[in-house]
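Our preliminary data section would be incomplete without showing what the modeling component actually yields. Below, a chain of 106 amino acids is followed by its predicted structure, encoded as tokens that our downstream tools consume directly.
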Amino acid sequence: MTDHNETRQHSDTSEADADAAVPVFENPEIGDRSDYPTETTDGPILIANEFADVVVRKIETRNGMRLDIWSPRRGSRIMLDALALDCLSYQEPELITQLLARRPAP
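Predicted structure:
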């Protein structure tokens, strides 16, 4: 019985260490807390609803990693680096509302 308890205690420690090793990001303003994904996704991600659909991929360029966002309906594409994505992360929601109100270029 002692061996089982020692193993269990060791197991609990290993689980705690594994949980501590998973990076976490927080947004204290809205109380959101999430784990970073630990699995990798090599393929594109499709995000769609009745108004739009976009294909998002992580790509490597000669200037570093980029997020490639492509709109098949519009035929438009943008590649954003980490600095541009970081800039988006701290924008007010009103900026996105203003962008949605703009008419896309032909």
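Residues 2-21 form the longest helix (20 residues). The two ends are 75 Å apart (CA to CA). Preliminary results of this kind motivate Aim 1 of the renewal.
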